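Reopening this one. Same input as before:
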Amino acid sequence: MTDAGLGRFLDRRTLEFVRTYPHPIERVWRAITDPAELARWFIPTTEWEFKEGGAYRFHDDDFAGEILALDAPRFVRFGFRAAAGQEPGSFFQYELTVVDDGTRLRFVQYAAPGRTWAGQPEGRSDVPWAGGNLGGWHEFWEALAAHLDGVPADSRLPPTPMSALVADWVGKMQIEYRMDPKLGARIRIGLRREERWAELNALYEAIINETLPPAKERF
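Same output, byte for byte:
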C-alpha cells in the first residue's frame, strides 16, 4: 500500500484524499462546482442551489443535502440530508489551495455515528466505510485529472483483457451497425471506469482491514 495517491483515515470516521492538479484554482473550482462539468467526470445533478444553505442532490435522494459552508474558490462543505442510511452530521468537503505547480485539492469525508455504506468488508460492521465508497472517490479523482487535462477518462489506465475486448466490440459495432462514434466512446469509457472501480474496491477493502483494526465494541 505505498501509492501516495491512496486515501487515508484521519480517524475511524474521517477519510482524506489529497491531489495536486496542474491547473489554476479557478479552473479546478469550476470543475467541482459547475453542474455541467460535474456531469462529465462525476455525477449529474438534479438539484443545485450553489449558495450557503442551498440544497443539492445528485442522482438520487441518498446523495443529497445542504451546502453548509462556502468560500469560493477555496472551500465548500456539503452536509447529508437526514434520510434512510444517512446520519445528521455526516459531510464531505473540498479545500483548494494554490501551490507552485497548480492547485492542491484536499477532500475530507466524515461519517457520523450510525452512517454506513453498502458493501462493507465481511464481518466489519464496526467501521462506516466500504471498499466501493473509497474506491469510487479514488476513481473520481482520476477522472477529474483527465477532465481537467481534456483527455478521455480511460486514456491513462493500463490496458486489460476486458478493455481490449470492449474496444474490439465497440469497433465492430461502429462498422457493422454504424454506431455513433461518440456513443461508442461513452460505452468504452464507462465500462473501463466500472472495471477500474472494481479493481479499487478490492484494494480499499484490504486497506480498511489493514488500517482500521476491529473495534472491541461497536460504536
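So the earlier flakiness isn't reproducible anymore. For the record, The beta strands are 8-11, 14-21, 47-48, 55-57, 64-71, 75-80, 91-99, 102-110.
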